[in-house]
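Margin note from the TA: students keep mixing up input and output lines. Inputs are the sequences; the output is the structure of the whole complex. Example:
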Amino acid sequence: MTEKTFIAGFGGQGVISLGQLWVYLGMKEGLKVTFFPFYGAEKRGGIARASVIVSTDEIASPLVTKPDSAVVMNMDSLPICEDIVKEGGYLLVNSSLVKVEPKRKDLKVVKVPCNELAEKIGDVKIANMVMMGALAKVTGAIKMDKLEPVLKTFFPESKHKYIPSNLAAVKAGMDAV
Amino acid sequence: MAEDIRLMKGNEAIAEAAIRAGCRAYFGYPITPQNELTAYMARHMLDRKRTFIQAESEVSAINMVYGAAAAGARSMTSSSSPGVSLKQEGISYICGADLPAVIVNVARSGPGLGGISPGQADYFQSTRGGGHGDYYHFVLAPKSVQEAADLTYEAFDLSDEWRIPAMILADGLIGQMMEGVVLPAERELSKLPKRPYAVGDQAKQGRPINHVSSINLVPLELEASVRARFERYAKIKETLVRYEETQVEDADLVLVAYGTSARVSLGALQEARKAGLKVGLFRPITLWPFPEKRLAELAGKGKRFLAVEMSMGQMVEDVRLAVNGKAPVEFYGRCGGVIPTEDEVLAAARKILGK
């Protein structure tokens, strides 16, 4: 199994965190992983992108150019993602912010109202975690069965109070697809 | 006890490996895309009561490395392409003074300030002795975060053993990406190799005075010291060449690539094999000493070669020198911070194979 994912959104949406946590979870499940971030020199408002790969085999290029799945967190990222997803691949769209339809007809489009679901839990900042739940459910690449203990090793002690809301966000994302 | 696997950036893994190898003094100056390395050192060297200095420039940093090395400390600096250019004078002096040091280049695209995206156009500068004078130093090219850590760790030992600096030539992708890494064991500072040629503390220890310098105004003496150094180079070329081969034996076309390009080329190889094309991969790990003998051997077996680089073609010249006209050597490269894709490399391979 190899799942190549491309994630894009604007700076501050947690694109980089989502990518990092995704591969960290993969690593903890015994997979080979790579994470390569790409962002501009802007202090805020630029597009943040991440190439992430989780695989049962050794990973060749860490740069994802033909993803199996792509995550679109905002409007500006839609054309970038739509352009590169492999034929018949998954396009996961944050439908809270992306109000237009993808042009390609071959893609499996999955709409997740990440911001709304995150706000319902109480914090729009965890919209990325909602998306991660959806991504895990749709691709099946990461099981997420040991999410809580793994989150405890990912976040420093001082941030552990946020773990329950993060768990709720991931669950909400899984349930939404 | 076996260490756990950790998720780290290449830059951080290099820094942690250096600390564990017994680096006692780090001198740096900020530049993208290697800043995490300097930042990691700032935090963790000071924690361990070792020396960390953010110098006022790259030139200062390399000269501080020179001084610390002369005083007997395992010392290191890191930078990215434009900053490494500035360090070349100091590297030449360190080589001329026969001192160990570790220099990390997390290369970006050039020339000039260029861009902050990954590049491999510093190959000539790294492998030819980028400063003035007759000299070489080790150049090790990691392909992954794990190898970046392992090679950095080893670089300190190689450098100490041969009294020749060792350079880690990574690129922005290796530095910035995260992968799982198992870190090497921490070295005890008291058990590191002794440096009887080091300066300092002579009076207290009753040792004779040591001079560390690259200057010698007597031509015959200077010639002798350069020649002695080249004898060490010859031994290194005999024993320390390192490379990795993937499906080379039955290959009609052998891709030759290091670092990030080798990762991309491996992906192209996998696609090619699926399509029934006999493509192999030869990955130099030591860029100096370059694995020229093995390439010559492969050329003798009728292989063709395609060098893949993130430059306009630099390592390809070493491949051609090694092959020495016995086999065709083609080139595919991207530059300016563009990373070639697996599809592009596959297309270049198909063109050569006519399939």
